[in-house]
Design goal:
- This protein is mainly alpha-helical.
- Helix content is 37%, strand content 0%.
Length: 51
């Protein structure tokens, strides 16, 4: 894993289980990366406390 150093990857695992089509640059999914970052940030505090 490159820890995000080479950009964002976003895949639809139902439609593309082998991850051939990176949707990160598709305008239809333009807000998805930020939405996922927001969700992850909200969960990190509780995850850190459980460790």
């Amino acid at each position: 894993m490159d820890e995000g150093r080479n950009g964002i990857e976003l895949y639809d695992h139902d439609a593309d289980p082998r991850e051939y089509t990176n949707l990160a640059t598709d305008p239809q999914y333009a807000t998805t990366p930020q939405e996922l970052r927001t969700l992850l940030s909200a969960q990190l505090p509780s995850f850190r406390q459980s460790r």
